[in-house]
Amino acid sequence: MPLPRLIPCLDVANGRVVKGVSFVGLRDVGDPVELATYYSSGGADELVFLDIAATPDDTKTMTSVVAEVADVLEIPFTVGGGVRSVEDASRIIESGADRVSLNSAALAEPSLIGAIADRYGSQAVVVAIDAGEGVVHTHGGRVATTTPTLQWAVEAAERGAGEILLTSIRQDGQRSGFDLELTAAVRGAISIPVIASGGAGSAQHVADALRVADAALIASIVHENPSGLPGLRREIESLGVHLRPLKGRA
Amino acid sequence: MSDVVIVDYGAGNTRSVRAAITHVGKSSEVSADPAAIIEAPYVVLPGVGSARSAMEHLNETGAAEALRQRYRDDGPTLGICLGMQLALESSEEDGGVKCLGLLEGKVVRLEAERVPRLGWAIIDPWGDAYYFAHSYVAEAPDVVATSDGLTVALRRGSFLGVQFHPEKSADAGLNFLGQCLSLV
User: Fold this and answer.
1) Which of A67, A75, A123 sits opposite B118 (nearest CB)?
2) Which chain A positions have a beta carbon within 8 Å of B8's beta carbon?
3) Catalytic pick from A51, A88, A98, A130?
């Protein structure tokens, strides 16, 4: 099995990283390229960029951000938000992203998952699920659907998704730990990897999540102190979870 | 002429490979021109898209025959991910695809607890972790490295193939790429 991954998530709107990043050591904390490079050198295993505006103008901006990031980043990255068609996915992947993340568009049109996977492979398709009280939610978690979470995860995997990004609405933003039960249940129902999301407040929380998931998404815990990422990794390792060794080959 | 020709087979993202090659101080161009592929100091066959569409493009443009000629001429070539798999005789992907046949062996569906196999994994005997994203794997005799018991690097003659993505493997990947390209 590959090693568990630590994945900082950056919310981007109109070409700028928004909310929650506070750090004096960066020249421009709002610059997605600079922050991405900083997290990469701090030991991020992968990054997720979430386009939270996703208006037509913003989409164009996001495409150039993706290209700029691809030119400097030597770790994989996923782009989500505003991917509603194969053309959207093509634009993002051909600008240099490794994967796209689909959320409500996949729910509305499940065949989109297979269409993108056919062109770029399953490894390029992440399906993001916002889960609460047993069902999938839309609109950033505010609107409950009638689709059971497990059923949708299984269907997404069957249709060609390469990974599930599972966010617990209850835990998201609470910093009180991931929903381990939900994560284990979803991962147990499918045979593709699962990224746990929502609730990281400490190294212990992340270590616990990495015992039941293939990766953990982290946001405020790292944005509040970007220089703390190497320390966070060491703390997680001291709790017995082995992450990738960071030193390159001599 | 550039130091490296990255073989174009119409499947999109070669941007990260180009960026990594630039990072280790070499110039590159993306091309499907048979003459450029035969004559380049170094060739990279990148890993994007699916086996069937890749082979169709390579056959149509003449790049497939150029890669075979280059191999016979002992021209150094690196295959990455799908680019490594294409060097073998055949792949099970897309219902079965005849590949370049530079090296003996075939590509089979990965049997693992989680597929796709996504993430960083230690390579034996090299010792560092590199980034993988694959659902198929090589079964071939010319193995030079493994990971979780899977064949992840092959070498025969002037062809080196790796299942991982050096362009996505941070410092370890850049060091690897730098060593490959130190030949040119």
Assistant:
1) A123
2) none
3) A130
Size of interface A-B (CB pairs under 8 A): 129
Cα–Cα distance for residue pair A194/A201, rounded to 1 Å:
19
A246 lies in some domain? no
Predicted TM-score of the model (pTM): 0.95
Q: For residue B82, which amino acid is it?
A: L
Check if B35 contacts A (Cβ < 8 Å): no
Asked if residue A183 belongs to a domain, the reply is yes
- Give per-residue pLDDT as tens, B86-118: 999 999 998 999 999 999 999 999 999 999 999
The torsion angles phi and psi of B13, rounded to 5 degrees, stand at: -70, 95
Domain presence at residue A31: yes
Please choose, from the candidates A29, A39, A92, the residue with its C-alpha nearest in 3D space to the C-alpha of residue A61.
A92
**Would you say the C-alpha torsion A114, A120, A122, A128 has a positive or negative sign?**
negative
Residue B13 DSSP SS3: coil
- Count CB atoms within 10 A of the CB of residue B143: 15
CATH of the domain at A59: 3.20.20.70
Chain A residues with beta carbon closer than 8 angstroms to that of B172: 248-249
Low-confidence ranges of chain A (pLDDT < 70): 19-28, 247-250
- Domains, chain B, with CATH or none: 4-181 (3.40.50.880)
Enumerate residues 6+ apart whose C-beta is below 8 A from B93: B50, B51, B52, B85, B107, B109, B136
* Environment class of A38 (CB within 10 Å of its CB; exposed 0-12, middle 13-18, buried 19+): buried
Residues B49/B55, Cβ–Cβ less than 8 Å: no
- Number of separate domains in chain A: 1
Domain, as residue range, for A56: 5-238
CB neighbour burial string for A106-143, b if at least 16 within 10 angstroms, e if fewer: bbeebebbebbbebbbbbbbbbbbbbbeebbbeeebee
Residues B22-33 pLDDT 10s: 999 999 999 999
Closest Cα to residue B168, out of A74, A51, A181? A74
